[in-house]
Design brief:
It holds the Pfam family ABC_tran. InterPro entries: AAA+_ATPase (IPR003593), ABC1_TM_dom (IPR011527), ABC1_TM_sf (IPR036640), ABC_transporter-like_ATP-bd (IPR003439), ABC_transporter-like_CS (IPR017871), P-loop_NTPase (IPR027417), Type_1_exporter (IPR039421). It is a multi-pass membrane protein. With about 600 residues, the protein is of the alpha/beta class. The chain has a 6-stranded mixed sheet, sandwiched between helices.
Length: about 600
């Protein structure tokens, strides 16, 4: 797989860049968080004002606004208190609603965008990844981001705004030297927190990697449960899962140990700041340089501020978990798409006269190709497949037969040469149209968890019930489907595990029939079925290949005797070609294969 330079920007900036579409919602939520912080800080000021009224009465701070009566002053404080509590409750509701909705919206969009981008990546990308790792990104990592937006983002904004507000307030209320002394621990706390975050980052990167490895192990074991049981490997697989789970636990424990040490250090700095204010502020109030009310307000607010910083450990812990997940999500979204769609549109549908807009003539012109980090599979290979004819390709395993199919569908890009359909380079064709033009029946049939009808109509989502039944009859699948418990509404199970191999193969053929493509590829379509099923499949194939360009990759030579032309591949080259009879007369590789399969040797 081609490598690319990873984005070096901090994950948070990458997330904010992605979230530009939510800018208005983010600002609204941020404003509500700041307003809520202001309202939370107001009660100590009200308490100080009440103390001021008790001590100075008609000469209190409130008397400056023309309210000299003590009773009226307390009623005013009560009214302000009600307003503050109302605003506090309203802003609390606002930020809670906005941040949670933002989390849900961004989580939803990120998952869809990441999955959509994943679908557009070339097949080579998936060879370098694990299914469990990709599922961890689309599930666990995005859920981590949801938790960050639900709670942590609001906490960070509230603490930051509280620090700014209270630092300004401290310098306005307290004597300058006392304000500086009480705030002295603040830069150490903030710098220490930033340093802590950087040290924590690689630890949580490793945790997220371990999550992917653990998910991969679980996914593989669940998918291979029949193999595990048949080889009585339950204890072996349990031990392997235990090793993966222990690795995840150890990586988490390293991060937790580091995180747990942070809070006690913060508490020591908080103690220094609060004790400094307690002593110096108390002496200033005793000497008359500071009013008792101001001293009371300062004690409560600074204590509230400094102790809120103790939460920084937990906040940075959650923040770093979220950023480790964000990095993995954004790396997936930033993965470049190597195979780009062309601009020429195709219409594979039949018109009213029953003719094709795509004739289906296929040409491979001097094509060379090698899988990443492997020796060449094809070297200067040329092949002409006439429109409307059936062409078979045979050869030993690893000779390059299936690679031709992958290149024709542009799952991979040729290294040199070109492939054309109706004399148009497939790289110039719209990628979706190209793949709609080609129907693939593979030996490795994949059925989705759903009904028989849904699997037959997969890809042709506007198919009617009559279309589905017709396709099943042509594929000789209708009879066995009728005997299933719920007929066409029978659930086939994950990967079609409730059906036999032959039944799955016939559903795959029905799926290709209902697609009705101009070009049909049969990739070892009967290699894993019994003779009776093969005969049924051959009857259906003989009907659907008429007047259609068909490429049959075959292992059983008996299934291709009647095709128009047979090509024999060996080490990425065609070494023989002709009809069945012509190849037997040549007495070469094909003739030897035929004698082996016919039991003559």
């Amino acid at each position: 797989m081609p490598t690319f330079k990873r984005n070096s920007k901090a994950p948070l900036f990458r997330l904010l860049n992605y979230g530009q579409r939510y800018r208005s919602q983010i600002w609204q939520a941020t404003v509500c968080s700041i307003v809520n912080t202001l309202m939370d800080l107001a009660p100590p000021a009200l308490m100080g004002a009440a103390i001021d009224v008790l001590l100075k009465q008609q000469n209190s701070f409130l008397s400056q606004f023309g309210i000299s009566n003590v009773i009226h002053q307390f009623f005013l404080l009560a009214l302000i208190t009600v307003l503050i509590w109302g605003l506090e409750s309203l802003s609390n509701y606002g930020y809670d609603l906005l941040w949670r909705n933002l989390a849900q919206d961004m989580q939803h969009d990120l998952r869809l965008d990441a999955y959509t981008h994943l679908q557009e990546l070339e097949a080579a990308y998936f060879e370098e990844q694990t299914t469990g790792g990709l599922i961890a990104i689309l599930s666990d990592d995005i859920n981590q981001l949801e938790h960050f937006l639900n709670t942590i983002a609001n906490h960070i904004i509230q603490i930051a705004s509280a620090v700014i507000i209270l630092m300004i307030g401290a310098f306005l209320v307290l004597p300058i030297e006392i304000a500086i002394a009480s705030m002295l621990p603040m830069p150490f706390i903030l710098l220490g927190s930033l340093r802590y975050q950087r040290l924590l980052e690689p630890r949580y990167d490793r945790v997220r990697e371990q999550v992917g490895d653990l998910n991969t192990r679980l996914e593989n074991n669940i998918s291979g449960i029949i193999t595990i049981k048949s080889f009585t490997a339950e204890r072996y697989e349990r031990d392997r899962l235990k090793a993966e789970s222990n690795a995840y636990r150890r990586s988490n424990a390293k991060a937790i140990r580091f995180s747990a040490a942070f809070i006690p250090l913060i508490r020591i700095l908080v103690l220094i700041g609060f004790t400094t204010l307690l002593v110096l502020g108390g002496l200033a109030a005793f000497s008359g340089r500071l009013s008792i009310a101001s001293y009371s307000i300062a004690l409560i607010l600074v204590q509230q501020l400094l102790w809120s910083l103790v939460d920084l450990g937990e906040i940075f812990d959650s923040y770093q978990r979220a950023m480790a997940s964000t990095k993995r999500i954004m790396d997936l979204l930033d993965t470049p798409i190597q195979i780009q769609s062309g601009k020429i549109a195709l219409s594979p549908k039949r018109n009213s006269e029953g003719t094709e807009t795509v004739r289906g003539e296929v040409n491979f012109g001097y094509v060379s190709f090698a899988y990443p980090s492997r020796s060449p599979v094809l070297t200067n290979l040329s092949l002409h497949i006439p429109a409307g004819k059936t062409t078979a390709i045979v050869g030993a395993t690893g000779s390059g037969k299936s690679t031709l199919v992958k290149l024709l569908l542009r799952f991979y890009e040729v290294d040199s040469g070109k492939i054309t359909i109706d004399n148009v380079d497939i790289r110039d064709l719209n990628l979706q149209d190209l793949r709609r033009t080609i129907g693939l029946v593979s030996q490795d049939v994949f059925l989705f968890h759903g009904t028989v009808a849904e699997n037959i109509a997969y890809g042709t989502f506007d198919a009617t019930e009559q279309d589905i039944i017709m396709a099943a009859k042509v594929a000789e699948a209708h009879k066995f489907i009728e005997h299933l418990p719920e007929g066409y509404q029978t659930i086939v199970g994950e990967r079609g595990q409730k059906l036999s191999g032959g039944q799955r193969q016939r559903l795959a053929i029905a799926r290709a029939i209902i697609k009705n493509p101009p070009i049909l590829i049969l990739d070892e379509a009967t290699s894993a079925v019994d003779n009776e099923t093969e005969a049924a499949i051959q009857r259906s194939l003989s009907r659907i290949t008429q007047n259609r360009t068909t490429i049959a990759i075959a292992h059983r030579l008996s299934t291709i005797r009647q095709v128009d032309c047979i090509y024999v591949m060996e080490q990425g080259q065609f070494v023989e070609s002709g009809t069945h009879e012509q190849l037997l007369d040549q007495n070469g590789i094909y003739a030897n294969l035929w004698r082996v399969q016919a039991g003559v040797l």
